[in-house]
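We store chain and fold; example below:
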Amino acid sequence: MAKPKKQKSEEELERRRVARREKYNRIKNNPELYATEQEKKRQNYLNRKESKQIKIINEMSPRDQRIQRRKWKESAKKYYKKKVSQKIIETVTVREVDSEDVQGNISADPLKEAVKEKESNPSNTELKLIKKIKTLKMQHRKQKQSCMLLVNRYKARIRVLQRQIFKLSRKTSNDIETTENKEKDKKQLFDELLNEQITQKFATTTSRKEKRAITNLIDGKKFKHFKVSTDLRKVCLRQRLKKKKMRV
């Protein structure tokens, strides 16, 4: 039977923690011991990595990766807070030192302080130059504002002109379409009227000479696009069929 482990008291654990901290501080203050300690830690890490006790984040599962990244974030936050607190402590100590210096300077010679104030105060020429620089800066700002206003006005004017051009282009396109449609309608009406008149004339005439004259005119090149010849052929065929029926 294995002996049960004795539970150590909290005082003993705290004493050991304090002893470890003191030992680590001693090692950290000595550069040689600190270098050897870091080398030991590095070798221990490499041995654990070779024996696959430590996994790289690429070898971990997605759940383990999330846990590891959370740990890294928490440690980074702690480190940042520690640095901020150190900076605050440093600034407070610097202010305390400055206040002590000021209190020590109160008991100094007043004549020396007057000389220092004169040296620190700028001369008249320097003041004039500073005023000129300020006026030039103000002028530059005003010019910049006026230029920006002009640019915005021109941009607005360009937008208005673009809209007007778009409207005019739409109107012109619509007018062109309407004129083209009107011309097409006129041509169709003319073709229909001409076709009707010629077919009526051809149907009413009885002499073969007049019919041949009409057909010769229609077969010409000028009348081909009026589509009159096809209608006349239909009329001729109808008349021939009627004559054949009458003979029978």
